[in-house]
Amino acid sequence: MTRVLSVTSECVPLVKTGGLADVAGALPGALAAYGVDMRTLLPGYRAVLAAQPDAAPVFDIHDFFGGSAQIRRGTLGDTVLYILDAPHLYDRDGSLYTGPGGYDWADNPQRFAALSLAAAMIAAHGIEGWTPEVLHLHDWQAGLTPVYLRELGAAERVKTLMTIHNIAFQGCCSADLIDTLGLPRPGFSPGGYEYWGQISALKAGIVGATKVSTVSPTYAAELMTGEYGMGMEGVLAARGSDFVGILNGIDEEVWSPSYKTPKGKAKFKAALRDELGLPNSGPASEGPLCVVISRLTGQKGFDLLLEALPTLLEQGGQLALLGSGDSAFESAFRDAALRHAGVAVRIGYDEAFARRLIEGGDAILVPSRFEPCGLTQMYGLRFGTLPLVSLTGGLADTVINANAAALAQGVATGIQFHPVTALALTQALNRLCALYRKPDVWTKMMDNAMAQPVGWDSSAGTYADLFETMTGAAHPK
């Protein structure tokens, strides 16, 4: 049984800001079937400790970035959870990464260096008689771990996998913090953790880990280009075959529709329209009910959707949106809801309402300029809510475009568009509405979507194979 410690800054159901939390929460259970004993290390935020009141201390750390700390043992279902309880770093108001004013915590470099160092200490010294063979490091928050692992003399014995969930977040901070973070000064070089005169925790992980992965094969290829690599393309390309893309999955038990066939969606669609006050009859209801669940940012393509929206509404389509983000987008979509009977908007996030949107919607829109993997399109597939997505990252890897060949062969599951422009999105919405007006074709696409595997089985096996390659330990097939 391969022993793996997952090192993450967020994990469902305890704390979440994005898809990383879903992956961190689902992967240990999925890997258990492959003989992988994956445990999780998570910062002791207030919400985490409140949800784990019986977590007992099992490891003491003194003089730890401005205070003392303990590692506590809790559980998440069948998964062992180690909680880094350091009140001076994590016991505070605000969100995981930002204060009440919305700005990054000034000591984020220390907060997540602490997470990385704690992981390295567990690897070097063991915990409760358990020593990991692999550290699975998620995003920049765990990126300094390979540096600390070398400093503790355990880098040859314990392997590391650095997984990039979003290259846009690189964990950069001033080089003045080298000593504060306990980093070796020789490592501050172009071949180490130095990045344009700063420390980059993400780069430290990329250059120092045994292997590097990201969350879809297409995103892996994109990251080695100037358009998507955000300055890290050369560093990633230099890793060669040690850099791979492994598609995320979703928890198919949690995201399981109440209906088993496309016909079952009708009552949920009617209920959703009633809940939102959307027309249930007449010209304004003759097109598809499109749903959006997302952060409202330019990266997610919402300027494009605002420009293309009239095309959907003119054909009797409707839009139901749940999300929050840039105030300009929030205001623009609120204004659209005031001006159009076919638009409903809720600002914020509500997991139960998100599920009702997916369950009742005809299509789910994901017009992202880049998307490492994406999960909402997989939720859509699972529920027969056809994804309309840009041709990028994991969206390209999970949706079968309804082009002439796919329709002729009866395999299409959604619509992809490229380039990522308002014109291309407008054309895609026209295609969506045209397909919706062909009930037999639409129903076949729903059947295809609902039958598509979107769980963790295949990807968990790929991770298990990778861990096996790294450690030389065979897993049960």
From TrEMBL:
Substrates-to-products reaction catalysed: [(1->4)-alpha-D-glucosyl](n) + ADP-alpha-D-glucose = [(1->4)-alpha-D-glucosyl](n+1) + ADP + H(+)
GO CC annotations on file: cytosol
Gene3D superfamilies, sorted: Glycogen Phosphorylase B
Keywords assigned: Glycogen biosynthesis, Glycosyltransferase, Transferase
Domain of life: Bacteria
EC number assigned by the record: 2.4.1.21
InterPro entries in the record: Glyco_trans_1, GS/SS, Starch_synth_cat_dom
Record-level Gene Ontology MF annotations: alpha-1,4-glucan glucosyltransferase (ADP-glucose donor) activity; alpha-1,4-glucan glucosyltransferase (UDP-glucose donor) activity
Pathway: Glycan biosynthesis; glycogen biosynthesis
Enzyme category, top tier: transferase
Residue ranges constituting the Glycosyl transferase family domain according to the UniProt record: 283-438
Residue ranges of domain Starch synthase catalytic in the record: 3-237
Residues reported in the UniProt entry to bind ADP-alpha-D-glucose: 16
GO biological process assignments: glycogen biosynthetic process
Family matches, as PANTHER family: ALPHA AMYLASE DOMAIN-CONTAINING PROTEIN (PTHR45825:SF11), GRANULE-BOUND STARCH SYNTHASE 1, CHLOROPLASTIC/AMYLOPLASTIC (PTHR45825)
Function: Synthesizes alpha-1,4-glucan chains using ADP-glucose.
Family classification: Belongs to the glycosyltransferase 1 family. Bacterial/plant glycogen synthase subfamily.
Protein's name in the database: Glycogen synthase
